[in-house]
Amino acid sequence: MKNYYLLLCLFAFEVGMAQNKFPTKFEETRGRETVTYEEGIAYMQTLAKRFKTIQLQEIGTTDIGKPLHLAIFSLDRDFNPKSIKAKGRNVFMINNAIHPGEPDGVDASMMLFRNMATDKKLQAILKNTVVIMIPFFNVGGTMNRNSYSRANQNGPTAYGFRGNARNLNLNRDFMKLDSRNTHTFVDIFQTWNPDLYIENHVSNGADYQHVLTHLATQSDKLGGELGEYLRENLIPNLKLKMKQRKWDIIPYVNVYGNRTPNDNGIPQFFDSPRYSSGYTTLFHSLGFINETHMLKPFKQRVEATYDFMMAMLEHMEGQGKKIQQMRKITAEEVTKQEKFTIGWKMDRSQFDEITFKGYTPKMIDSKITGKKRLFYDRSQPVTKKIKYYNVFKPTLTVQKPKAYIISKAWYNVIDLLKKNGVKIQQLTKDQTIAIDAYYITDYKSYTRPFEGHYVHYGVKVKTVPQEVKFYKGDYVVFVNQPSNRYIIEALEPQATDSFFSWNFFDTILQQKEGYSSYVFEDIAEKLLKENPDLRKRFEAKKQQDINFRKSARQQLNFIYQNSPYYEKEHNRYPVFRYVKNQSLPVK
Question: Does the predicted TM-score (pTM) go above 0.90?
Answer without folding.
Answer: yes
